[in-house]
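thread: overnight batch results

M.L. [08:02]
morning all. the overnight job finished for the chain we discussed friday. pasting input first so we're all looking at the same thing
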Amino acid sequence: MDVTSMNGYLQSQYANAAENTSKSIGKISKDSSREEITEAVKGFETFMLEQVLKQTKESLIPKDDKEDHTMSMYKDFFMDTAYTKVASQLVDQMGGKITDDFVDQIMRNYGITGNSNPQTDNMGLDAATVSDDIAATNASTVTEVQA
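M.L. [08:03]
and the structure it wrote out:
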C-alpha cells in the first residue's frame, strides 16, 4: 500500500467512524429498545474517548519532523486501530454508570418507559415524574451557600 492509498484509507476510516456514530445516535426513536440505545451510546462514548486519546498524545508527544513520511503513515494507521480498541475496552470496563446515565437520560427525553426501570413501568409513572424522583434522590445535602 503506497502513501497516497494509506492516507486515503485513514481519512475514510475516520469519516466512517464519525458517520457510523452519527447514524447510530440518529436512529434512536421512541420505539428504540434499551439495548439499541446502549449500543448507540457506547459507540458515541468510544468515538469521543478515541478523540481524547489522540489529542492527548498529540499534545504530550511532539511530532518528529525527521521521521520518514511513509513510516509515519503506517504508524498512524496502527495507532488509530490501537486507540479504537483501547477506547472500546475502557468504555466497556469503566463506562458502566456513565453509560447507564446517558441511556436513562435518552430514554427520559424520548419518553421510553419500556424496559428502563421495571419498578417505574409497573407503577405507570411518566418520564417527568421519574426525572423529578431521580433529582430528589440525588439532591445535594448542602444546607447553605457561603458568599
